[in-house]
Amino acid sequence: MGPGGGGRRGPAEAGPPVPPPFVRVAPSLFVGSARAAGATELLARAGVTLCVNVSRQQPGPRAPGVAELRVPVFDDPAEDLLAHLEPTCAAMEAAVRGGGACLVYCKNGRSRSAAVCTAYLVRHRGLSLARAFQ
After folding, report:
1. Confidence band (pLDDT; 50, 70, 90) for 9?
2. More confident residue, 8 or 27
3. What value does the mean pLDDT take over residues 83-92?
4. Is residue 6 very low, low, confident or very high in pLDDT (cuts 50, 70, 90)?
5. Which SS3 state, helix, strand or coil, does residue 41 take?
6. Using CB atoms within 10 A of its CB, is residue 70 exposed (0-12), middle (13-18) or buried (19+)?
7. Tyrosine specific protein phosphatases domain: which residues (predicted)?
8. Catalytic positions, written as ranges
9. Is residue 36 left, alpha or beta, with left meaning phi > 0 and alpha meaning psi from -120 to 50?
10. With left for phi above 0 and alpha for psi between -120 and 50, is residue 15 left, alpha or beta?
11. Which ranges in 47-111 belong to alpha helices (H)?
């Protein structure tokens, strides 16, 4: 289970369980939604030192000591995410090699952030595209 807990609510609270703002993808690599940037305590517990904000509009991290790298793209197939991948993945690898962890997030934590995590796993962890995507 990721650092966000089980997403369970107490018996007095109504509604469906709330998913954690981010989950572990690999050692020192997490993916999540924009809510993750505000999860200061969870970021600290996970050892996150770099947040990659794959959006033009979502807020940056609020945790002290956590750097932000913004990849300014909208969730639109016409955006050129590829142009940002090499420098973004290099910054992620530098954070990990420096002893930290990296959180990659976008609005919902499903497409842009997942694409960046996949690219990182292929480029710096040597996974095949199929395995990285899994």
Report:
1. very low
2. 27
3. 98
4. very low
5. helix
6. middle
7. 79-134
8. 106
9. alpha
10. left
11. 82-97
Confidence of residue 62 (pLDDT cuts 50, 70, 90): confident
CB neighbour list of residue 19: distance below 8 Å, 6 or more residues apart: 4, 7
- Compute the CA torsion angle 122, 21, 96, 112 (nearest 10 deg): 40
Burial 106-128 (b: 16+ CB within 10 A, else e): bbebeebbbbbbbbbbbbbeebe
Q: Identify the pLDDT of residue 5.
A: 47
Q: Is 116 helix (H, G, I), strand (E, B) or coil?
A: helix
Residue type, 70: R
Instruction: Share the mean pLDDT of the chain.
Output: 90
Spatial distance between the Cα atoms of 125 and 119, rounded to a whole number of angstroms = 10
CA distance 108 to 115: 13
Judging by DSSP bridges, how do beta strands 67-70 and 48-53 pair with one another? Answer: parallel
Query: Helices marked H in the chain — which ranges?
Result: 40-46, 82-97, 112-125, 129-133
